[in-house]
Amino acid sequence: MYFGVDYYPEQWVFPFGGTAEKPEAQWRRDAALMATAGFNVIRIGEFSWGLCETEDGKFNFDWLQRVMDVMGEKGIHIILGTPTAAPPIWLTQKHPEILPVDEHGCTKHAGTRRAACLNSEAYWNHSKRIVEEMAKALGKHPRLIAWQIDNSLGGNFTESAFNEDARRDWHLWLEAKYQTIKLLNNRLGLRHWGQVVSDWKQVPMPMAAPTLHNPALVLNWNRFCSDTIVQFVKMQADVLREITPDRPVTTNLRALRHRFDHFDLAEQLDFVSIESTAAIKAKPSDIACEIDMLRSVKKTGIRAPDGDSGFWVMEQKAGNVSWQDVNSLVRPGVLRMFTYQLISRGANAILFFRWRQPRFGSEKFHGAVLPHNLETGSRRVFNEVSQIGEELKLLAPALKDTKVTADVCILYSHDNEWVLAQPNQPNKHFCLREHIQLIYNALHDRNILVDFARPTDDLSRYKIVFAPSLPLLSGGEADLLKLYVQNGGTLVGTFNTGLVNEHNIAPVSGFPHDLTELFGLEVQEFDTLLPSEDNHLTFKGAFQTSHMHPAKIWCDLIEPKGCQILAVFGREFYAGKPAITMNTFGLGKAIYLGTQSHQHFYHDLVAWLRQMTAMHPLLKVPENVEVSLREKEGSRIFFLLNHQASPIRIQFYKPMHDFLTGQNIVGNYDLPPHGVLVIDEHPEAKTQVGAEPY
Length: 694
What we know:
The protein is α/β, with parallel strands linked by helices. Helix content is about 30%, strand content about 20%. It folds into 3 domains: about 1-160 and about 230-400, Glycosidases (TIM Barrel, Alpha-Beta Barrel); about 410-610, Class I glutamine amidotransferase (GATase) domain (Rossmann fold); about 625-685, Golgi alpha-mannosidase II (Immunoglobulin-like), CATH 2.60.40. Strands 12, 13, 14, 15, 16, 17, 18, 19, 20, 21 and 22 form an 11-stranded mixed β-sheet that branches. Strands 7-6-5-2-1-11-10-9-8 form a 9-stranded parallel β-sheet. A 5-stranded antiparallel β-sheet has the order 23-24-27-25-26, covered by helices on one side. A hairpin with a 2-residue loop joins β23 (about 625-630) and β24. The longest helix is centred in the first third of the chain and has 29 residues, at about 215-245. It is globular, with a radius of gyration of 27 Å.
């Protein structure tokens, strides 16, 4: 298992490290200390363009070669980042057209990372050249195990720059998609406000305007910007595979943001890497949701340096961040706990961000494994990280070839995020991520493993599929959902579904578009509520609840057409109208939630669905203990995490084996504050029957 850290050797040369006589001496001391912590891999290079190409066409990779050699002496492997996230000053001075133009037509200036328009021909060509030269110079180094393309793509909003090169590519993209001007006008509905065009060059970019751009045009702009990022990654991946075919490529993805399609981008990668802010103050289920989202964007065709099929964590925060209003320290034990949360959900490599707190630059107060002053500063984080390193040496053989296998899936599509981000929505207070999180929390709190997928993916392996608010739904996607239920699946759809087709045009077939037969109903109208308002739900006998549940944000006025009514609204002129329904379709069930509720409702919903589908929890544990499972044939490894600042007592009815201590556990066990257990059934227990099933 790979365990490492992000390192910026260029920041630790004299006068900030080393000596005048040996300006790079700090590298050797750092390598020795990294080895002591158990690190066997580092990431370097992703912001080094201005140091590798100091002038146009003048390349110097010797210093990176020396870093790699020094690390290799200590058995440390290298992930090399292509440096395209930080174009050098000389490049933007020579080609000012590279600098991104915002929606107001204002040029953003150089002097930071991401100061480039991805559609710029000059930037594209120079990016390709620096990647080629880096690969030729360093690609055969024996310690190099993988490439990271760029860094944190989709940040700083430069993916939607409005440069002239972007305008050119935008028009070419539209022409390739629609072929004729007539079809473009019809599919985008440009008759609205008389905005029809007679030439491709007339189609505007959605820059700042007196009022709203056509929503279908804006949706296509989002798709175009996403495709631009994907093609930029593909260009680099193609170069690297041609020169170094035996080195896999990846890039570090942040939690799903609507600026580009993560599923599309993942198709260009050999394996997925993610960034995690899991060490800062956050709800465990929020972090788990982000992990599962990113783990799910590439499920097949994975080619990682270790040969395993999981994902890598390229940036796990080692301490406090520097970009919040208040950047609190990470409490003892929390870093370890969240690191194990990542591992429990499929991570096969952990790299901490970063090795040392830098002495200069905008991140000089960002937390790191080591403080500014190594001699007298705190080694608390270093010691905790070193402990993790020792534990992973014990754990790695057992985790080899294990996978996270989920029985439940939540559907997600970037098209829907882009539609919902536009103005003039039925309810601007509706947030898709919050809606998804309510469902995910209920599954997480019952320790049910979850995948995410697009509506076009193969869903046949899942017992339950949640389809939360898919306002944009194509006919093909609807057909696949029908097929899933027809073959015996259980689908849970929600309000705000099927309001427009793939062209962002409202259907005449009724809501939800192309799914009325599946759910056995038609939504005739919908009422939207302020966050301070609610209706209430009255439940029928088939759906047992433990609480009174409100109807919030959205209320669909449903006309049943064969479905079973599970709950009705209690107030307003639509009192007594169906709010929650279930329909038998083929061999499966299609459940429809015509409103949003509070968290207690979703816990009741999951409990009911679990009974209906005969789905059992992973382990019987107290609340506030998170359980995950990695398994392979003949092996099931459970991870138990205590997210509380106080101990939790767990009772084991079967003997269990503790991987981290080598001891056996049975009966009562007190999981300490922020504690971690990694266990499997004791070999002798596998033939025994416990008092409680697992």
